[in-house]
Amino acid sequence: MNFSEIKLEQKQAALSELRDVKELFASRGWFPGTSGNLSVRVGEYLPEQFHFAVTASGKDKSVHTPEDYLFVDQDGRPCETTGLKPSAETLIHCEIYRKTGCGAIFHVHTIDNNLISDWYGEQGYVPAKGIELIKAFNIWEEDAVIQIPILPNYADIPKIAELVPEALDPAIPGILLRNHGIYAWGQNAFEAKRHLEAFEFIFEYTYRRLLLNGAQATSSTL
After folding, report:
1. DSSP strand E in the chain: where?
2. Quick check: pTM over 0.70?
3. pLDDT at res. 87
4. Which segments are annotated as binding site for Zn(2+)?
5. Chain center to CA of 149
6. How many CA atoms lie within 13 A of 14 on its CB side?
7. CA 20 to CA 33: how far, in whole Å?
8. Each residue of 164-209: pLDDT tens digit?
9. Does position 219 have pLDDT exceeding 70, yes or no?
10. Is-contact 161 74, C-beta < 8 A?
11. Binding site residues, as ranges?
12. Contact in structure between 93 and 161 (CB atoms under 8 Å)
């Protein structure tokens, strides 16, 4: 499907979803500076041809303007004439859409996901076991164990994008960049939001658990 064939109401619905999610996440402080990016796919999906709305580069996500978003194709190129630039990490969105066929991708920077991704960076994944919010990923085993992938945070975004397809775990709808942030996705904006919130809970839980373990180890030597 060409971009011109996508119905106007579908495009408007994607922009409305992005506005609502952006406002919510900004209220939580998940977009420090102008960091983070959000996207929602529009129209039919084919691995070789798809389109999505994405946040524009360099925008303050705590406010709304008429130039917050633009539409791009499967290679991250604008679908319409515009002076806006897509977020620098749009190529990473392209690879996630291409690999998963998902409907929305949300990327945020938080203290917890930065600390945890750096702590486990050399290991290449964040281990999580028996945490209730793992169920948000439709993993229902008792004391389930998951590994959330971590990629190096290269300054060269295409270099990161090249690593995405091999790093993705079909069972885990998220991937971390070390000391940078989390990308979470879902079949639609609602599911992507649920997954992102679950990841952030897991990261905060894991961080606090590490602190408690350190405090217990210190107290046992006193």
Report:
1. 37-46, 49-55, 69-73, 104-108, 125-129, 145-151, 174-177, 181-186
2. yes
3. 83
4. 107, 109
5. 12
6. 24
7. 19
8. 999 999 999 999 999 999 999 999 999 999 999 999 999 999 999 9
9. no
10. no
11. 107, 109
12. no
